[in-house]
Specification:
Elements: E1 25-29, E2 35-51, E3 62-73, E4 77-87, E5 91-105, E6 111-118, H1 135-139, E7 145-156, E8 159-168, E9 186-187, E10 198-212, E11 220-235, E12 240-255, E13 258-270, E14 279-284, E15 287-292, E16 294-304, E17 306-309, E18 313-326, E19 334-345, E20 348-358, E21 378-389
Antiparallel strand pairs: 1-2, 2-3, 2-21, 3-4, 4-5, 5-6, 6-7, 7-8, 8-10, 9-14, 10-11, 11-12, 12-13, 13-16, 14-15, 16-18, 17-18, 18-19, 19-20, 20-21
Length: about 400
């Protein structure tokens, strides 16, 4: 079963978009020392119409995923476990842990978090408003969750820092692939002997974010910042150790119901592989694919929210422009652009999106799309996602 032509829908993405509320059932009091435990979840149904010769069987509404979330909050501690079950051919043929962490609140602004958690790279966990997500999610830079410790502290209300160490990636779970049954796009041990067999470890990350909130314009909020990522890469075939260097700069702006976010940076992988020195095998959503080792990435997101339309629904049109420009000569650049509208009413949401992609493994491409590229055609996908949260 080739998952490259299946769903690449990966999560509830939001940047200035009102998300459905995971109401759940709560036991206890979050303000007490004993704390409160909240159990919640969501179910999703999906419809896709592929404009690149995809299977007609996808042109129907079908179950996409079930999500279980357990959240803990107290006066000093917090934690979360989130697990997801997906359906490609049958129920839960792919399932994975997303988060599993505990944390300690040093004071109202500073905290330490230990476990599988979102990494502090880029402007935040999400870089855009769409559900399908930008190409940088498939590269493994956006909404990535790894195993480690993160120290978040603030000098004042406007200056925020994150210092983190991740010992390893978020792990491989239940699926049909050798090492790609995972939520985050990580370096993997490939099932193909002609591809790389890599393990990333000792990931050091730092992020600083400075907010600007002019008193004369109370509705205007801005922030700028940067983040850096260095890690070791263990090559299991050559017994050599390589590395990853990545950096990102970002800027966010919001004025009343309008929001704009720009994120860009560079990634450089030295995989110490003699057979594939210019590309490395990654895996996510039970799928293996190759990514160019060196390139520049970017994401631009714009959205506007119409609140409480007809006293019942929030409507958010958005546009996402993203790409990965590869340094290696002869490697074709990849891009993924999304125009969509999110509809939110209480605990029900609908994402209607039109995805336009080139050299994209999850939109009409191949396992080489993010490395050498494929036929270079602009493929198009209509993606509808219905979400009921409880």
């Amino acid at each position: 079963m080739n998952h490259l032509y299946r769903k690449a829908t990966v999560g509830l993405f939001a940047l200035g978009v009102t998300l459905p509320t995971f109401a759940g059932v709560t036991f206890g009091d979050a303000k007490s020392e004993l704390g409160a435990l909240t159990v919640s979840g969501a179910v999703r149904a999906n419809y896709q119409d592929k404009h690149y010769g995809g299977a007609a069987s996808d042109q129907k509404v079908q179950f996409d995923a079930g999500i279980l979330k357990i959240d803990y909050q107290s006066s000093k501690f917090f934690g979360q476990v989130q697990y997801r079950c997906y359906q490609y051919e049958r129920l839960c043929d792919f399932s994975t842990l997303v988060d599993g962490y505990m944390g300690y609140k040093i004071n109202p602004t500073d905290r330490i978090t230990l476990g599988v958690q979102p990494i502090p790279f880029g402007s935040g966990q999400y870089w855009d408003s769409s559900f399908y997500a930008s190409i940088n999610n498939t590269i493994g830079l956006q909404d990535a969750h790894n195993l480690g410790v993160n120290y978040h502290f603030e000098l004042d209300s406007a200056t925020q820092f994150d210092l983190a160490y991740f010992a390893t990636d978020g792990g491989n779970y239940h699926g049909t692939s050798r090492d790609a049954a995972r939520y985050t796009a990580n370096l993997v041990k490939s099932s193909d002997p002609n591809k790389t067999e890599l393990q990333e470890k000792n990931m050091w990350m730092a992020r600083v974010k400075q907010e600007f909130n002019p008193q004369s314009l109370s509705d205007l909020k801005m922030s700028v910042g940067g983040s850096y990522w260095y890690s070791d890469i263990e090559n299991n075939r050559t017994s050599a150790q390589g590395s990853r260097d990545a950096w990102a700069l970002f800027n966010t702006l919001s004025y009343k119901n309008f929001a704009l976010s720009i994120t860009g940076g560079e990634m450089s992988l030295d995989n110490k592989d003699t057979t594939n020195p210019n590309q490395s095998t990654f895996g996510s959503f039970d799928t293996e694919y190759d990514i160019a080792n060196d390139g520049y990435f970017y994401t631009v997101d714009m959205n506007y929210t119409f609140t409480n339309v007809r006293d019942m629904v929030n409507i958010t049109p958005y546009f996402v422009y993203s790409g990965f420009n590869k340094k290696q000569h002869g490697f074709a650049d990849s891009e993924r652009h999304i125009a969509g509208v999110a509809w939110n009413h209480k605990n029900v949401s609908l994402y209607t999106e039109y995805v336009m992609s080139k050299n994209d493994p999850f939109v009409g491409g191949t396992s080489s799309s993010l490395a050498q590229g494929d036929d270079g055609k602009m493929n198009k996908l209509l993606n509808l996602m219905f979400i009921y949260s409880f």
